[in-house]
Specification:
Helix 1 packs across helix 10. The two termini are about 25 Å apart. Helices cover about 40% and strands about 20% of the residues. A 7-stranded mixed β-sheet has the order 3-2-1-4-5-7-6, sandwiched between helices. The chain is built from 11 helices and 7 strands. It has a domain of about 190 residues: Rossmann fold. It is α/β, with parallel strands linked by helices.
Length: about 290
């Protein structure tokens, strides 16, 4: 399915070499299992349904454009892009999420494809637009993922990546859970770094022009209070669910995690359970 070519001269892109991911097989299997656990489709549908639409609107995706949605999940951004008339490929490492997206949107024309964000199976310069909504940020090796974003984007093509920020609520959620999970393998980077401007600028370098960062927030009013938030994320959000599973035989540590997540949610409550979760949209054009 995949062919590889050398990028045209003077595009600012480096030739593609498929990363050696042999040593990462177990890591990728864990990632698949984590995102297949729980009910991420419920979170995408109930908590953050507007994010994909916002990204598609900001990218001004139009009729006939070739669009790749990386780490698309159940189609949060892929669906509105397809409804805008684009030719959309929704890719994800986790086939279970793609199957849910396909079943939920049977009348929307999308090509659902299993693919690793760090080793995409498409030729260089295949797409007019490459996008991701809180998706590519979870690829464990940021530079490999960024290189693939640039590689499959045609010169002059647009990228748009929506990521949680380190300072925002989800960034703080991951910082809170860090003390309750095993340390990641060497070389694996924290997902919220994709919300750090300096980090993203370093990842793309001079291969992307007009690189812009726009911070915004999504209002979340689903939870009645801290306990409601904690139980919802414990049961539905893969990273939180797996953190609890790892503490299954440690009741004291489980109670500590309960208290830490309750404190996090209580500190973010702006009244009546309303929260504001910050994200950043990174946009630019491939040189």
């Amino acid at each position: 399915m995949s062919t590889q070519t050398t990028p045209p001269p003077n595009t600012g892109a480096s030739p593609h070499t498929t990363p050696d991911t042999t040593g990462d097989a177990a890591l990728k299997d864990r990632h698949r299992a984590m995102w297949a656990s729980g009910n991420y489709d419920r979170i995408a549908r109930e908590v953050i349904p507007v994010l994909g639409e916002r990204l598609v609107d900001q990218l001004r995706i139009t009729q006939g454009e070739r669009v790749l949605d990386i780490a698309a999940g159940t189609g949060n951004a892929a669906v509105p892009a397809a409804l805008a008339g684009a030719s959309v490929v929704a890719s994800d490492l986790t086939p279970e999420l793609l199957e849910i997206g396909r079943a939920e949107h049977p009348d929307v024309e999308i090509d659902w494809q299993v693919a690793d964000a760090e080793a995409l199976p498409w030729p260089d310069a295949s797409y007019d637009v490459v996008m991701s909504t809180v998706g590519v940020m979870f690829a464990p090796h940021h530079q490999q993922a960024a290189d693939e974003v640039v590689r499959v984007l045609r010169p002059g093509g647009r990228l748009g990546l929506l990521s949680w920020t380190p300072e925002g609520f989800i960034g703080r959620l991951f910082a809170t859970m860090r003390d309750f999970v095993p340390p990641p393998p060497a070389g694996v980077q924290p997902p919220p770094l994709w919300g750090d401007e300096a980090h993203v600028q370093e990842l793309f370098g001079d291969r992307v022009e007009a690189l812009a960062f726009e911070r915004a927030h999504v209002d979340v009013e689903l939870f009645s209070g801290p306990t409601d938030f904690r139980t919802y994320f414990r049961d539905n959000y893969g990273p939180t669910l797996m953190a609890y599973r790892g503490l299954a035989d440690q009741p004291e540590r489980t109670a500590e995690l309960d208290a830490a997540l309750d404190a996090l949610a209580a500190g973010a409550d702006e009244g009546s359970g309303r929260m504001r979760w910050e994200y950043v949209v990174v946009s630019g054009r491939r040189r």
